[in-house]
Amino acid sequence: MTKAICWNCGVFKSGSFIPCPNCNADPTTEDERLISLFLTDHYHDEAALNALHVQIRSGGKKYQITDDLREEMRPALRMVSRMIGDGKNNDTVANQKQEKIKPQSNKFLINLIRIALLVFIPPFVSTFAWSLYGNITLFADQLIPFGKIFGQSFYFIVDFIGGIIFAYCMFWTAFKLGPKKSLEGILFPISAFIIDAYLPQIRFSFLELANFSYLYAAFAGSLLVIFSAWTSKLKVLSPIEILRRRKSLQRKESDKPVDNLKKEELIVNNKGLIKTGIDNRENETAQRLVLQSIDKYVAGDIDGSLQDAENGLALDKRLVVANFIIGFIKHAKEDYQGAKEALDIAINSGIDISDKFYYDAYAYRGFCKNAFEDSEGAAEDFSKALELIPDEIQIIRARGEARFESKDYMGSSKDLEVVYKSFPDDIDNLHRLSYCKFVTLDYEGAIEIYYKLLDLDKEREVLTLSNLSKAFYNLDNFDEALEYIDKARRLDPNNRKILAEFHKIRKKHFKDWNDKMSEEEDS
């Protein structure tokens, strides 16, 4: 634990930047934080700290911070400012270290090369794959006369599958070659290219309607892949890279792990525990690299920290403590596969280290699993994180959404209910919670949420009215069911599903009314 002295009154405290328990002095300016960091056991031994404690308590503040030491301490201060959320735009030292803008001509040349690759390589790969597939089916048809057995439908199926292969290979190659963070920027031109490849022949076929071409079957197959790529439906037809990028782009800030840990204090306070995983190793170079990695991580040199940690592990695989650092950094860089692999090793090592490290490791690994659509695995990791640090609302929310994706609606409902109590106007959470309550037959609870959504979400009012009607219908309250489905019908008169639901409920309502009248007459 960091032993520090309050810069204002001289009382000992357990952290550099926490408010003083005696005078409540909270270091907020750069000079106050610099002095607070200086008055710790990182820069003084116990005797020197005691002497400073006596001096400050007696009213004297005889300490000096040299300019060289100030420059050495600034990286740690920038780390503190980033985590507290201030000083992002006022850090002149950080601004001076920004990378120089590359010459515009170089960027233009790189963009030209990328465009050339996207224009020429995907069509070549797709055409080659379709040609290979065509030769294989032709050879198979010669061995076994499928065309004679199944008739003309066999060739339509062959061309339909060929169209799927053509479009799939186009998207797969384009996303392998294109910018790593682009989605629509690749989807749109490749979709247009695929459609344009068919259009000349399709137009010609339309002019000669009698000559129906098998090309329509291939065109339909390609359109199916385009639909899957844009909507993420029929996921088996969409390259996994598209699904991953869409998932990453749609992830909200609220879905990310809570950075409840001040990482530099966490590591400083646990250096004794960390060193137990490093000491007594034969390879001193590996030890030095891992400890150096931790120091760089505290100072905010993320790239240098990652490089040192990986080099240290390459020399001595037993230094598993470095995997925590590697996992945290790779998650921040959106290298979810690398982060998951490192965190797997860190978690399974079971080394004796602070629970907060394991909490963050489970939380980050859960979000990595979410990126790979392993919702069940993500929910398990979020549960393990909450066992270590309960009541973290954003992790509870993440677990609720992971359970929702894995169709554990009962468990999801419990988590989303907790989120609802803290954030009663969160529209996305309300929609998920109402769905969970409906499918678990808690219609009264669903109705309560639907009423709230009618006030908050006007864009999806028709959907909410329709769901509200269904909930009342399942409670045999046909008066309310008819009232709300009629409101939905009036707002969206061309919606066939709503019209069908309206006629179904109206018949049921009329029958129910007749039954009640008959019972009254009999009585």
The biggest beta sheet is recorded as: 2 strands, antiparallel
Strand order of the largest sheet: 1-2
Tally of helical runs: 25
Mean pLDDT over the residues:
75
The 3D shape can be described as flat
Beta-strand percent range? under 5%
Order of helices and strands: EEHHHHHHHHHHHHHHHHHHHHHHHHH
**How many E strands?**
2
What class would the helix/strand composition place it in?
mainly alpha
The helix content is over 70%
- Low-confidence region ranges: 82-105, 251-262
Task: State the end-to-end distance.
Answer: 82 Å
Estimated radius of gyration? 32 Å
SSE blueprint and pairings:
Elements: E1 4-5, E2 12-13, H1 30-38, H2 46-57, H3 67-84, H4 92-96, H5 104-143, H6 146-150, H7 153-177, H8 184-207, H9 215-231, H10 240-250, H11 263-269, H12 271-276, H13 284-299, H14 302-315, H15 321-332, H16 336-349, H17 355-371, H18 375-388, H19 393-405, H20 409-422, H21 427-439, H22 443-456, H23 461-474, H24 478-491, H25 496-522
Antiparallel strand pairs: 1-2
Which terms would index this structure?
two-stranded antiparallel ribbon; flat; 523 residues; 72% helix
